Amino acid sequence: MRVNVALNGHLSWYTPTRERLQEVEVPEGSTVSDLITHLGVPEVEVAFATVDEGRVDADFVLAEGNQVSLVPIIAGG
Rounded to an integer, what distance in angstroms lies between the CA atom of residue 24 and that of residue 39? Predict the structure, then answer.
């Protein structure tokens, strides 16, 4: 199945294409956590995820055509 992913901040740096917006093919039954792993993004770098504009947990099961946004941990000083 295909989902559309927005990789905010520096998260796109971990993917081969480094593109902020990507259409990604994942197996049926994949979770947000599975997607993060599939993309090659370290899960500790993701503060939270939204699916179709609603905040979800990492174990949320994705569906065809979902709009996923991954938001990074931000550090400052």
Answer: 8
Cα 45–chain centre separation: 11
Cα-only R_g, the chain: 11
Summarised one tens digit per residue, pLDDT across range 7-50 is: 999 999 999 999 999 999 999 999 999 999 999 999 999 999 99
User: For residue 54, what are the contacts with CB-CB under 8 A and spacing of at least 6?
Assistant: none
Number of domains in the chain: 1
DSSP 8-state symbol, 64: T
For residue 56, is pLDDT > 60? yes
Domain range for 37 is 2-72
